[in-house]
């Protein structure tokens, strides 16, 4: 009965996430040939949110006032956790020619990234973004259409470069790039330099090609000043596909993480594309809490406060460790250490010290003697009692009544699942 009441209590939240009012961000006619449908709501708290625990830091910072650009496949601003007024700006579409906004999405990739950064909390739903107070600037540079081999079509570097420059000109203080490539492309490199000159912190995925090409290059994560983010799983281990190299600065959850889908609902996502926004969201928290810090200082703070990972500090697998939103915001890393007052040496009274030592030794001897006398007295009393009972029984052996022992059955402990398995692994309800 209690379970039924609890489920009924979740009905308003589920309705809010599965029904959508007027589709203000519906894709333009013909823009999406095979749009990703809405998904079911995942109400359990995801493992990534349990690990990073962003609610701890929200009393100190929610990222309010910070604009985060998501250079991706667009962002569906109609999703219930992204639909608050002013949460997702119109943005711009650099994939299609013309003057289209970027606040629509055909394939959910950019919507998922944006939700990890800034999705609003909803009662009865465990998923929420790292920095729900931040605003999202959607910059659409791809529709992630697949070729005949099932691989994403290459993204036009000119579109990416234009998108990065646009984000910087719009005042984005954090730019999330959940994309990577092998080549150092001038349009992207120059745009990254331009954004950094505008004090924008760029966070980029390091890529998911480690199984196929160990030690390969990764751009834009490999550019100076860009924070490269790799992926860990629920056990804290590097995801097998997460690339290894000197461009790995931080790690974040990226294996079977929950994020929003276009229109409504959630899904499980994998890859460094979804690890990067955990760092971008944390950067927004820091920029809101410490507005005087420059982008390089914010990056240094994120690295300095990272939690230790399996590879140790500075490894090419794990970088500085796992991003820690609470420490990144709350830990005091600025200011000079306080000057300690001078210590005045005290003159030691040798005669008083000798007298104190004599009394201490005498007291210890007295305590020892008293303990020995007490032990002798107790033994004598026990001996007297035993002798008295022995004489009464004429020194015959006695038997005590047997004690009844009730056999107890040990039950195996109930198995506890700390984290929900992916949807494909959960049994049907």
From TrEMBL:
Occurrences of domain Peptidase S8/S53 (ranges): 63-321
Source domain of life: Bacteria
Location of the active site: 72, 109, 273
Compartments it resides in: Cell membrane
Lipid bilayer topology: Single-pass membrane protein
Signal peptide: 1-24
Example GO molecular function: serine-type endopeptidase activity
BP GO terms, sorted: proteolysis
Pfam assignment, any one: Peptidase_S8
GO cellular component terms given for this protein: plasma membrane
Keywords: Cell membrane, Hydrolase, Membrane, Protease, Serine protease, Signal, Transmembrane, Transmembrane helix
Membrane-traversing stretches: 368-387
Entry's family note: Belongs to the peptidase S8 family.
PANTHER family hit by this protein: CELL WALL-ASSOCIATED PROTEASE (PTHR43399:SF4), SUBTILISIN-RELATED (PTHR43399)
Protein known as: Type VII secretion-associated serine protease mycosin
Organism expressing this protein natively: Amycolatopsis saalfeldensis
